[in-house]
Design brief:
alpha/beta, single chain, five-stranded mixed sheet, globular, Trna Endonuclease, Chain: A, domain 1
């Protein structure tokens, strides 16, 4: 999710963290109160900053999670997902998207637009 939607979907972000804890993820860093904020990446020559929604570890491997919810700025969200996917591939991490009912179609269409069809969604 993009920065402007953080307040609107903070409840879903908390639910996602709870889901990950129940499935054995450790060292969870999330972009919400009560958790350490994941590392941010700044675009050179611009004021755009990309922060993954959730970063966690499981079985010694780092996983990067982003929340796939309807957004008013889909192009910014596509750019964020492409960046996080590329970053995870470079560093041998895993990149996954978490979504919920009512947002499946939006998220799948976004993934089709940026040719990330191979990504399986975590549906909460």
């Amino acid at each position: 999710m993009i920065y402007t939607d953080k307040d609107k979907y903070s409840d879903f972000l908390n639910d996602s963290v709870t889901y990950l804890k129940q499935h054995g993820f450790e060292n969870i860093k999330a972009d919400i109160d009560g958790y350490e904020t994941p590392k941010s990446y700044a675009k050179k020559g611009s004021d755009i900053v990309v922060t993954p929604d959730i970063v966690a570890e499981k079985e010694g491997r780092k996983h990067i999670f982003d929340i796939g919810l309807k957004s008013s700025k889909p192009n910014l969200l596509k750019s964020k997902w492409l960046f996080l996917n590329t970053l995870s591939n470079l560093k041998s991490h895993r990149f996954r998207l978490i979504t919920t009912r009512g947002h499946y179609k939006f998220t799948n269409e976004m993934l089709d637009d940026i040719n990330l069809n191979d990504k399986k969604l975590i549906k909460i």
